[in-house]
Amino acid sequence: MPVIELANCTGCLKCVKDCPSRAITIETGDIADTCIHCGHCIAICPERTVFPDQGEIVPLRPHSVTAEDFSLFTAGIRSCRSYQSKEIPENLLVELVTNIKHCPSASNARPLQITIVRTTEKIQLLNKLTEDSLIKLISFVTSPFISLLIKLFAPKMDLRKLKRYQKSFLAQRKINDSLICHHAPAVLLFHGPSSKTGMLEADANIWATYTSLHANSMGLATCFNGFIVKALGKNGKQNHHFDLPESNRIYAVLLIGYPKVKYKQECSRNGPKVNWA
Ligand SMILES: Cc1cc2nc3c(=O)[nH]c(=O)nc-3n(C[C@H](O)[C@H](O)[C@H](O)COP(=O)(O)O)c2cc1C
Ligand code: SF4
Ligand code: SF4
After folding, report:
1. Which protein residues are within 6 Å of ligand 2, measured from CB?
2. Are 222 and 215 in contact (CB under 8 A)?
3. CA distances (Å), origin 167, targets 130, 156, 180
4. Probe residue for ligand 2, chosen from 4, 30, 37, 44 as the CB with the greatest number of ligand atoms within 8 Å
5. Low-confidence ranges of the chain (pLDDT < 50)
6. Long-range contacts: 237-244, Cβ < 8 Å, 24+?
7. 3-state SS of 175-201?
8. Cα–Cα distance between 34 and 219 in angstroms, integer?
9. Rounded Cα gap, residues 108 and 57, in angstroms
10. What is the pLDDT of residue 175?
11. Is the C-beta atom of 5 inside 6 A of ligand 3?
């Protein structure tokens, strides 16, 4: 929990008013155990007299991302499936994962970890394990009896699309290629303990989204990968190949690398339907 040094406190009450859990008694400098460790009191104190229990007080510096900059920047970000064979310097990967401390998370527990897979052998293994698992799963759901049940009870499931995926996995495998990691030089696995009540999947996707934006600001490109999450995320059977704890689940996956392609036009698609209530 943060610590308030009352000697320099002017009693402005900024910390008290901004505390989401009303945990601060400023007269005594006490913080109740309802504190959710959000750090707002540290960030808001004009006297820098609220101290974190970990790390230092880092003053914010001015920046200049306008709303127009953000819109133009995001318009150019696309999922990349064609990467140069250039490695990403380690310091950039470190910068990307270090910045994740700025991402929000449900309840501030932050048990998620990130594993950076970046050897060709391990990435090929990711491809193989994912394809094996999906090919098996698709064979099961498209088998005569199960597909009959699916048609009855989950008629929206597109079995023909699944079959098409299966066919392309097998076809690409024959030519020693893969549709999973698209030859990206690095793959980020966002993983954490299995939790029925937490929101780790949401945290992981938010962290991956921030990381994707950050990576694009460095001239890198990214692609989310749902195949790996679906194939390997549900149980920890294959975790040992990548030194993940067996009890962890993979909640989000992001491919990263230098793009081979450059887009000239925005994507022409509509925004979501918006309702006003
Ligand atoms: C959660 C999520 C999972 C995705 N999984 C994959 C994937 O496994 N393989 C892939 O090639 N693209 C994947 N994508 C990328 C989408 O196909 C892509 O965002 C969509 O086609 C729109 O294209 P754009 O991102 O270039 O605008 C995923 C995207 C999201 C958000
Ligand atoms: S860390 Fe957040 S919840 Fe805890 S005392 Fe500070 S503002 Fe309140
Ligand atoms: S924000 Fe800082 S100066 Fe203001 S009341 Fe809180 S501790 Fe004191």
Report:
1. 2, 19-21, 23-24, 31, 35-41
2. yes
3. 14, 21, 14
4. 37
5. none
6. 238/129, 239/191, 241/122, 241/125, 241/129, 242/115, 242/117, 242/122, 242/126, 242/189, 243/115, 244/113, 244/115, 244/189, 244/191
7. CCCCCCCCCCCEEEEEEEECCCCCCHH
8. 42
9. 18
10. 82
11. no
Tokens of 129: 């394990």
Predicted local distance difference test score (pLDDT) of residue 26: 97
**What pLDDT score was predicted for residue 234?**
87
Looking at residue 132, what DSSP letter applies?
H
DSSP 54: S
CB 5 within 8 A of CB 51: yes
Amino acid at 11: G
Would you state the pLDDT for residue 178? Answer: 82
Both tokens of residue 68? 């127009």
For the segment 188-245, what is each residue's pLDDT rounded down to a tens digit?
999 999 988 889 999 999 999 999 999 999 999 999 999 999 999 988 999 999 999 9
Give φ, ψ of 253 to 5 degrees.
-135, 135
The pTM (predicted TM-score) of the whole model is 0.91
State both tokens at 126: 């990711």
Q: What is the DSSP letter of 77?
A: -
Q: Which amino acid is present at 113?
A: Q
Tell me, what's the pLDDT at 214?
98
Residues in the chain, overall count:
277
CA of 208 to the centre of ligand 2 (A): 26
